[in-house]
Amino acid sequence: MTSILEVRDLCVSIGRGDGRFTAVDGISFSVNAGDAFGIVGESGSGKSLTLRAIMALLPTSAHLDSGAVLVEGEELATAGHAARVQRRARIAMVFQDPLSALNPVRTIGDQVAEVPRRVLKRSRTESRRRAIELLGLVGVPDPARRFDAYPHELSGGMRQRVAIAMALAAEPAILLCDEPTTALDVTVQAQVLDLIDKLRVELDLAVVFVSHDLGVVRELCQDVAVMYAGRFAETGPTSDLLGRPRHPYTLGLLRAVVDLDDQVGTLRPIGGTLPDPLHLPSGCAFHPRCPLATAECRTNVPPLIHLDVASSSDASSRASACFHHDLVEAP
Amino acid sequence: MSTPAPTAETVEREEFTLARPNGFWRRARHSPAFIAGAIITTLLVLIAIFAPWISPYSPDHQDLYNILSGFSSKHLLGTDQLGRDELSRLLWASRTDLQVGVIAVIFPFCFGTLMGTLTGYFGGWFDAVVMRVVDVVIAFPFYVFVIGLVFVVGEGTKGIYIAFAVVDWVVYARAVRSTTLVVRESDYVAAARGGGLSHARVIFRHVLPNTITQAVVYVMNDIVLAIVAVVTLGYIGLGIQPPTPDWGTMISDGQPFLTTHWELATLPGIAVVLVGLGLSLLGDGLADVLRPGS
């Protein structure tokens, strides 16, 4: 089975001169149609930049140093208007903050209909019909009447639904989600996650879902990658990886999760903070915070190597960037 | 230690507020500045339009038996030293001065907004070059430039138009550029670009509607500046030439009679203040009203 989206050795740096640092360092992964791939990490670990780089929508301060994005085996241009033209009917993105993802001075219908009208060159009535259909698809009640509503007249959850409708307007095969539920209430969060999951199944979408919330990723994604300081620390099938972590950072994340069933549970945060990206520690970037760190970790950067995990159903898909992956305890 | 279950208050209801069309007028009704400014400005514009029909005399008609008449039933606001009806001249002058003010800012508004948008959106060497030009223009004193121009292109309104075209666009360019820099990085612009829309479409449908507010608000104040400029030039004799009625010329003509006939210099001055007040209030009001969702 060939993957619909393949990302190879993506490197993104930020700033220039002395202030320049590598924010995304050699990220590679692939996603099949109908599958969801999660990327989990702390704020500033490079998750969002990875998505932006795939979309060829890097902010002006960021620069793509290397890397290739392949859709259905075809390599896409990485920058410029041509790159976005290549992506328009293939990859779409849903942003973190639904308020800022919609233009405040234009009606939601107008914005959803814009891509069908201007990019797919449909007629005016056809575009309008398509926009109403999309709004209905994402669960906006009474879409024909909501067509003329402005973003500020909608709740956060509704805005995010509209943003998803907008992303789906060009009928993409791949949907990139940049923490689409972070700005929402917990109950609304669940509804939006259900929606994304439903759309993935119905439209056979390949979803790349970025989040700092392990619970969200556990529910939504078949495969997951844990990201730390611009690199993947560990990748694998979600249940397998979360049930039997092979990187001390993953273990730390799991132990820091609030367990509502545990009456006397105390949080066990990971000591220290995310390193300053300008002065990353030598060797493994996690070693100053790692209980398993040895001299080797301080000098050598551990490569992401495939593991031969006996308990895993799909052993070849597990990979860890830790020299001591066999020493990591169960959570 | 247990975490409390979410209460009813923390559960967001996914409901729409009722769609309110005409948000502009709804907000406008609640802005005293907008209402006051709109009333004053509308009145002044109506006066300017209907001046030929509402003024009792022709502005050039000289009633030489009735010079410096003072307030009277025949000449409500008196006559000047040539026997011309003060009221008629005031009304006709509003026509001249408002027209000059509006025409003078059209080019700076359009060109400055365009430059600000393009530099802010694309950045790079184009931005660098245009912004250095802006710095140079801003460093140059406006009135020195205008007076210098008058000697090149002659007296009258032409100098004002050219001077405003050359100097004034930088204000719009700077203001619009700074908001464009913010809007450019917003998610909805990223979404629009990611959707594969052309640069022109992204600029005119997604960026400009969010940045032009500032320019629109400023244009109100800018008309006042243009009128003050033409009045100032008229006052020092380099602006609109007689016999065309103009508040600046009227002020300077009336000045020698200030002790006996104060109205000749004061009333055109009050007219200028009224225009300034009306447009400034309108500008402030627009700033409040033109922000949907806030």
Helix content of chain B: 55-70%
CATH architecture of the largest domain in chain A: 3-Layer(aba) Sandwich
Helix content of chain A: 25-40%
Domain module count of chain B: 1
Q: Shape of chain B, please?
A: elongated
Give the SSE string of chain A: EEEHEEHEHHHHEHEHEEHHHEE
- The string of secondary-structure elements of chain B, in order, is HHHHHHHHHHH
What portion of the residues of chain A fall into strands of 2 or more residues? Answer: 15-25%
Number of strands of chain A: 12
- Total helical segments of chain B: 11
How far apart lie the N and C ends of chain B?
Answer: 40 Å
Low-confidence stretches of chain B: 1-21
Mean pLDDT of chain B: 82
Number of domains of chain A: 2
**Quaternary status:** heterodimer
Q: Can you say what the CATH homologous superfamily of the largest domain in chain A is?
A: P-loop containing nucleotide triphosphate hydrolases
Terminal CA distance of chain A reads 33 Å
Class of the largest domain in chain A in CATH?
Alpha Beta
**Overall SS class of chain A:** alpha/beta
Outline the low-pLDDT stretches of chain A.
Answer: none
Q: Over the alpha carbons, how many angstroms does the gyration radius of chain B reach?
A: 25 Å
